[in-house]
Amino acid sequence: MKNERNYLLTLMTFLVYFFLLGPLLIIIVVSFGPDRYLAFPPNGFSLKWYSNIFEVSMFMTTFKISITIALLGNFIALLLGLPAAYALSRYNFRFKNTLNAIFISPILIPGIVLGFTLLKFLIISYNIPMFTGLLIGHIILMIPYIVRVISSSLANLDFSIEEAAMSLGANRFKTFFIIVLPNIHSGIIAGVLLSFLESFNTVDVSLFLSGPGISTLPIQMLNYVEYNFDPTIAAMSVLLMVFTVIFMFVIERTLGLTFFTKSR
Amino acid sequence: MSLISLEDVTVAYDNKINILEKFNLNVEKGKLISLLGPSGCGKTTTLRLIAGFLEAKAGKFTFKDKNYTNIPVYRRNFGFVFQNYALFPHLNVFENVAFGLKQRKVPKSEIRKRVPEMLELVDLNGFEDRFVTELSGGQRQRVAIARALVINPDLLLFDEPLSNLDANLRIAMRVEIRRIQQELGITSIYVSHDQEECFSISDEVAIMNKGVIEQLDSPSVIYKYPKTEFVARFIGFTNFIDFEVESSENGKLLLNSNHSKFRALKTNDVKVNKSYKGVIRPESIKMKSYIENEKQSENSIKGSIKISTFLGGLHQYVVNTELGEITVNSDREPPYDAGENVILSLPEDKLVLVEKG
Ligand SMILES: Nc1ncnc2c1ncn2[C@@H]1O[C@H](COP(=O)(O)OP(=O)(O)O)[C@@H](O)[C@H]1O
Ligand SMILES: [Mg+2]
Asked: Which residues of B touch A160 (CB under 8 A)?
């Protein structure tokens, strides 16, 4: 009986990993193929699709735009989201639940709707430059992640330590920086990372907010596969995977992955 | 002139019901005074108002003859000890204690001198590098006390500091708190709902009920001579008998209840022909077996045992009398039987008249 369940568990685990990692393996293998089309198994070995990434100038341009949008947007989203998360956790006021819902809503609203609405109002009605529009769209996308993750960090914070600090001579403002922030830093980092990834990967919102010269990497990849069937995109995916793995490795080394789950 | 004075202070959360209304309190320098009362009576509110965490809707708070009503908490120089310790989790013991000194821009060399001194005072030397999570509850509260003391506070405020500790530690810690308080001669206000705790360490106790101080006296006076029915009940008086005052002469009262006459000492301001509750502790009543035709002495009443419960070392009896049920403790062996007739005598110096509540 016990053995039977163990077999079943092993099988299930295997299947899960197979379906999760199988496609990734295929992409990795395919990216090294020499043919101008996706072939599995490949008929040889070549690195030319990797070098092709750097020859398509739009990839580099949009990569820079994606990074800029993600970093700059993250910074602004944090400036807006951190005080919001703090106020929502710390104080009781009227319309608190409504406000909470508004901050979370971008997760619930389909990206296509959000993208189209922003296009209609920001770009068409108010003539805001495309880059700014794209930035605003991404900030709206990132705020819920920032607010949510930081809020859960604040939920574990005993606010009487603020009062303790004030009774010992620190004013409200200083208390926030030297008492509250150090105790929620893991939440802030987690929120920033999650929203960075969300911004970097998102397609739907960006689709509406891109135009001549302004586009993000995922949009550029989408455009590319519309007209080309070669393994460049596979090579690009492998690079992004490596990028993510290095990213996670550095986090693991500096903070430990457990900090995502840690309450302190 | 008192060190602290609250005058006609009114406090309300969210501007709805007034938790404190025209509240008054005066505390002398160097004293430890407790606020004692049931949960929800406004003890914490009073303490937080004094600390400056709360603002009063009306009224005045004077400290050392200065108007403190609008001075923000971080300029008050009061130490506050919380029930849940409220230590800074990201700092070690040394840094926790040093926090207040850093805010006051005390030079590093002096901080390095004073923090260990404080830790010594609370018996925690050598714990400087520990983190809060590595300490027991008792140790955490000691750190919190050291942290509040190191700034040489003008006033020390405790909000149920021992409630999260187990019983033995509570007793050891309250002795410790009293020792430190007297050693430093620091004026303190101590909030608790534990009567024994307050009585054992305080110079004066204020018994609070629904936002009002019903009595403020030394622990021994409160213990013997409660002023109101609420106070009497709260500090363990179990017998409440209706009496009318027939006369009052030379500090002695003649009382009438259900046509029996009783005598009592005048401890409170009572008026002739008004009715009051006579209160007496179960251990103050003397009980003996009823003997037929024996002359009844003064202040005594006949009754019969209704219920008997064993309290360990003595028995507690509920006795049916003309005055109603009266609870009595007695260590007589063998114990009285149910239904047995007894004579209860209520010593005149133990029978206290209080306002009906
Ligand atoms: N933050 C608050 N908001 C609203 N009402 C409160 C708040 N804190 C306390 N109260 C109310 O004020 C009253 C007194 O509370 P408190 O001073 O904490 O009592 P105690 O410390 O004696 O138990 C209670 O009725 C409580 O419900
Ligand atoms: Mg309280």
From this structure: 82, 84, 86
